[in-house]
């Protein structure tokens, strides 16, 4: 069991992180392994910057992470577990603003209810996004307002569960003829995998 995380420790660990100057500057690795060159060649020319909010909320001394179950008929990652977020738009001042806007639109978290603690480096997804994770502490008083076109459900997972290595299941899948590593977490009927699980592991690496 890893050392229990508190808000003060997270603030301290993430204090040195900065919003990426170029949200499209990714290294094309997943779980420490470089993506197949055939995949990189396809993704690189059309990458789109995206931001996700990694919402942390403290309830009675227990730190929890908010995650969404995406609507089943979306074009990308339909029905999967993800963080609130989406593609950068012309009106967004930066990738941090993208994450906050998407969180407001998808689940009703207002920017004024978020204390940004830090940033993760952009990571590429096989669907063509360069995703920057924005870690933020959320006001426990916020009232969820889900956009049914985007989000089917909002749920919470104890941060301690996600930070504990024994809860991560590793496997491989064949993608475009090559084996790529996959990690997943199973929590109360929710399967957290893919880019979302990879972002969680990237956060864990920063915190520990």
Could you give a quick summary of the protein structure above?
Helix content is 23%, strand content 37%. With 208 residues, the protein is an alpha+beta fold.
Can you put this structure into words, describing what you see?
The radius of gyration is 16 Å and the shape is globular. The chain is an alpha+beta fold and 208 residues long. It is 23% helix and 37% strand. A hairpin with a 2-residue loop joins strand 11 and strand 12. The relative contact order is 0.23. The chain has a single domain, classed as Nucleoside Triphosphate Pyrophosphohydrolase (Alpha-Beta Complex). It contains five helices and 13 strands. Strands 3, 4, 5, 6, 7, 8, 9 and 10 form an eight-stranded mixed β-sheet that branches. A three-stranded antiparallel β-sheet has the order 11-12-13. A two-stranded antiparallel sheet has the order 1-2.
For this entry, give a set of tags:
globular; Nucleoside Triphosphate Pyrophosphohydrolase; 8-stranded mixed β-sheet; 208 residues; 13 strands; 3-stranded antiparallel β-sheet; alpha+beta
CATH architecture: Alpha-Beta Complex
Q: Provide the CATH top-level class.
A: Alpha Beta
Oligomer: single chain
Q: What's the rounded overall pLDDT mean? A: 92
Q: Report, as a whole number of angstroms, the end-to-end distance.
A: 12 Å
Helicity, as a percent range: 10-25%
Number of helices: 5
What is the fourth-level CATH superfamily? Answer: Nucleoside Triphosphate Pyrophosphohydrolase
User: Helices and strands, in N-to-C order?
Assistant: HEEHEEEEHEEEEHEEEH
How much beta, percentage-wise?
A: 35-45%
Number of domain modules: 1
Shape: globular
* CATH-defined topology: Nucleoside Triphosphate Pyrophosphohydrolase
Low-confidence stretches: none
Largest sheet: 8 strands, mixed
Number of strands: 13
What's the gyration radius in Å?
16 Å
How would you classify the helix and strand content by structural class? alpha+beta
